[in-house]
Structure formats: C-alpha cells, structure tokens
Automatic annotation (TrEMBL):
It comes from Stieleria varia. The lineage of its organism: Bacteria, Pseudomonadati, Planctomycetota, Planctomycetia, Pirellulales. Gene3D superfamilies: Bira Bifunctional Protein, Domain 2 (3.30.930.10), Nucleic acid-binding proteins (2.40.50.140). This is Lysine--tRNA ligase. It is found in: Cytoplasm. Belongs to the class-II aminoacyl-tRNA synthetase family.
Length: 522
C-alpha cells in the first residue's frame, strides 16, 4: 500500500501509481469497476451482530463476551483466562471505501467505511489465500472493496471482519486528501462535495440528519391531514415575496418567465379550489447575494390550513420542529452559534411592539420618537412610511438580540400586504416570525382573503417599485382566484436550510446544502 518508487528511487506520481495498479488488476482478469454485490450488510448492521459472537472453549462450552464498554478490560487477558478456545461468529459481507491500510508482512489491516459507519477488516494471507492476498496488495486508499468473513474481535477488543474472501468493486484514480491536512478549504469542500462526504468526518452525518428532518416534517404534516402538492417553478409573474427573481425565456411561446421566489400564491389558489390543508416542500430561487444565511437556490416549506389562523400556525411550527428534533436525536438542548438553545416547548411568544420598546426604550407608537431614534442610528427616513422606519430599526436593534426560539407576533400591518388585520386594531397584522439566535426561521400569517383589500394593498405596494423587483407587477389571476372565495386560513413558511443549520449546529447555510451556488472555479 506504500507509494511505489522508480529505479531512481524518486516517488512516482500518485496518479500514475494508481493507474499501474489498475493495469495489474485488469491483468488478473478482474473488472476494476466492480459488479453487483449481493447480500451485503451495512457496516452498522454488521457490527450490531457482534452480540451473536461467542467464545467457545475446547470442551464446547459457550461463553458470552464481556462488556466492552468497560475500558479497563484487557480482552487478551480475558481470553487467556478462559482458554483454550476461540471465537465463533456469524459470516458477514460488507462493502465500502478503504480509509486506512496497515500492511504487516502476511497481514493487512484495513479500515472500511460506508455511509453507516466504519469497521476493521483483517486480511491474512493464510485466511484469504495467495490470490486474494496479492489482490489486496494492489488496494489503494479510497478504493471500494467488498469483504466476506467471520465477525469477531481482535485481541484489543476491536470489532473486525476476519476476511475469507475479497471483492474488488471500484478503483479510485485520484489520490485522497492528505491524512492529517484533509480537505479543509471550505470552498473546495463545497465544490468537491463528493470528496467532502467521502473523506471528512461530519458532513455525511449532517446530510443524513437533513434527510431525517425533512422526512419528519412530511410525516407530521401528513398525519395532520395536509396534502403535499407540486406547484410550478416557472411563473409568468413572480409573487408571494419581495425579492428579485431569476428570469428566463420560453422560446416556443416567445414569453418571459421567472423562477419562483415563493410557493404561496399557487397554494392559495388550491385552497380556493377546495384543498383545505395543503403544503409544498421545494426549491425557490432569488437573484440576490450570498452569505452564511443566504443561497440563491434554497428549500422552503409552505403550508396552508383552511379555517385556521396564525395561532394555528404557531402550534404547527412548534410541533414540526420538536418532532424533527426527536427524529434526529440529541435532545431539546442544542448548541448553535456558540449558544445553548432550549427547544423545550412551548416556545416564547412576544409582540413586535413590546420587543421594540424593550430593546430601544422607545414606544413604537410614538412617531416622533421613532424618527429621532432613526436619525441617531444614521438611517435615511425621508419619504419612508413610519412602519418601514420602524422595521429598519427593529432589524438593527431587536433581531440580533433574539436568542429564542421566540415567536415575534403582531407586526405593523402596512409591511404585511398578504396578511389579515386584527379586528380590534387594523394597524396590526396577524403575523409572526420565529427567531433563533437573531435569524428568522419561519414566517406565518392569518391569510388575507378579501380580494378587494388585497388588490388595494398590492396597488399601494407596487407604486414606486423598480421594474426588476418581484412586486413591480400584480398577479391579476391571483386576485381573480380570491374572488372565487378562499376560506379564512393560516399560512406558514419555514426555511428548511436554516432549520437544518440550527438543528445540526452548522455555521453556514452552504454546509447544509449539498451543492451550493459558488463562484466559477479559477
């Protein structure tokens, strides 16, 4: 397994050395790209069968193996004390990538890894025979192989497959990252996600946790009677959010289309049609900047419940997150961004106004005091609606202080054009945002279903918008749909990537997206 050297004793290029071994494998009549490998166990499942291993004395007496959680145990001494005899265990077949190789004369110890875990493979010349042992000498780090043999433990107590037969499954032609330096460059890890998953500890666990979180979300919604649908990703009018869309052109119809920036408006159309609990979990696209919290392509959940309100959505949000935590394990106390976050339900709830006053010392209803504070903070306020000024101050002075999880409820109505107003105070919208460590994770409304008011609010909001902004054009068909009667409802949006970030303790959204948007490779 050592790097070969040429006659001048100069190291051969590692890629050339690997191709030389590839040629020798082919000379042996072995397909270096492998074939079907039936009856293999995941390594985790194979290791779980260690309970079937018994120590059998010469007189046939079977002894259970000792508790290997006891670090003080000397397994070699235990066997000596109970010998003569030996282990008997099940025959297993495993496959994976070679992560470590230690050749010692007529023995080779391999560390084999699949997506469930890793295990040691004992390759002895006497056990596998000359042909397979010669094959093992052609193995390189990163190669995919299979092994069949008895499951047991070495004298140090390590769970091991004592190979009786080897199978070559695929040759790796590129050298792996250096053992100690590894694949540490962040951008390279994201660009070469395949190498990041294969050779770095952690990413596989993160992305498998992501899968569990998404499965849990779907299961919770399905159990609550929601129907999953698939809306269009190409829209004639970008709507449902204030964002800059990606634009494209449909040649056959000679028309401009945009990639969707939200899921909302088409899901509401379905509620008009009678689908009373509906959700979509899919990609949305916003032609905006990159940051640890933003990627132009990201995953959203939007769910709508007829005859509910934003209170219904708070209960649902809490249940979705808590169920996901239970699915991935680790408990409700979790670390994120250097802070311990307690997800034990119920989550805290506080109004926008009271949080504003606590953080600034200014009553948000006092327009003069808000203007004065805005000037002190260096914000431009000329020509802006007072609620827009309040929103800028809230983002600057309040959001970063919200450790959470906390539902911020009852926002100024003028900045919530898709939200129903409170009956006793039409200046307040029935909206919440869920914050954790200063980051918005979820947004929900009691949905506005008055078509005339919705058209009026859209018209007001559209005035003065830049042509490229998503809110610069009204979705007239959506207004027409509302005139066909959409039931009173609660609606919810959750950023799935941010949720995975928080629950897995990752610092950047690009660490929870398998293939994030990156600058062109230089």
């Amino acid at each position: 397994m050592n790097q070969p050297a040429d006659d001048s004793d100069q190291p051969i290029d590692p890629r050339s050395a690997r191709r030389e071994k590839l040629a020798k494998i082919i000379e042996k009549g072995i397909d270096p790209w492998g074939s079907r490998f039936d009856d293999r166990l995941l390594i985790a499942d194979a290791k779980a069968r260690i309970d079937e291993v018994r120590f059998v004395k010469e007189d046939g007496t079977e002894l259970e193996l000792p508790d290997f959680d006891d670090e003080s145990l000397d397994y070699r001494q235990w066997k000596s004390d109970n010998g003569p005899g030996g282990e008997q265990g099940p025959t297993v077949r495993v496959a994976g990538r070679i992560m470590l190789a230690r050749p010692t004369g007529k023995l080779i110890f391999l560390n084999l890894k699949d997506w469930s875990g890793s295990i040691q493979i004992f390759v002895g010349k006497n056990q596998v025979g000359d042909e397979d042992f010669d094959l093992a000498k052609l193995f390189d780090l990163g190669d995919l192989i299979g092994a069949e043999g008895r499951l047991g433990r070495t004298n140090t107590g390590e769970i091991t497959v004592f190979a009786e037969k080897l199978f070559f499954l695929t040759k790796m032609l590129e050298p792996p990252p250096e053992k100690h330096a590894g694949l540490t460059n962040v951008e390279l890890r994201q660009r070469m996600r395949y190498a990041d998953l294969a050779f770095n500890d952690g990413p596989m666990d993160t992305f498998l946790a992501r899968t569990k979180i998404i499965k849990s979300i779907r299961q919770t919604l399905d159990e609550d009677g929601f129907c999953e649908v698939e809306g269009p990703t190409l829209h004639t009018v970008a709507g449902g959010a204030a964002a800059r869309p990606f634009e494209t052109h449909h040649n056959a119809l000679d028309m401009k289309l945009t990639m969707r920036i939200a899921l909302e408006l088409h899901l509401k159309r379905l509620m008009v049609g009678g689908m009373e609990r509906v959700y979509e979990l899919g990609r949305v696209y916003r032609n905006e900047g990159l940051s640890p919290r933003h990627n132009p392509e990201f995953t959203m959940l939007e769910a709508y419940q007829a005859y509910g309100d934003y209170g219904s959505m708070m209960d649902l949000t809490e249940r979705l997150i808590c169920n996901a935590i239970e699915k991935i394990g680790g408990g409700f106390q979790r670390e994120f961004a250097g802070q311990q976050i307690d997800f034990t339900p119920p989550f805290q709830r506080a109004t926008y106004a009271e949080l504003f006053q606590q953080a600034t010392g200014v009553d948000p209803a006092d327009d003069a005091a808000v203007l004065e504070l805005s000037a002190k903070l260096g914000f431009e306020s000329a020509g802006k609606h007072p609620d827009v000024i309040r929103s800028e101050i809230f983002e600057e002075k309040v959001e970063d202080s919200l450790r959470g999880p906390i539902f911020v409820i009852d926002y100024p109505a003028s900045i919530c054009p898709l939200t129903k107003r409170k009956r006793d105070n039409p200046e307040i919208a029935e909206r919440f945002e869920l914050f954790i460590c200063g980051m918005e994770l979820a947004n929900a409304y009691t949905e506005l279903n008055d078509p005339d008011l919705q058209e009026e609010l859209f018209t007001t909001q559209l005035s003065g918008q830049e042509d490229e902004d998503s809110m610069a054009k009204m979705d007239h068909d959506f207004i027409r749909a509302l005139r066909h009667a959409m039931p009173p409802a609660g609606g919810l949006g959750i950023g799935i990537d941010r949720l995975v970030m928080i629950l897995t303790g990752q610092k950047s959204i690009r660490d929870v997206i398998l293939f994030p948007v990156l600058r062109p490779e230089s």
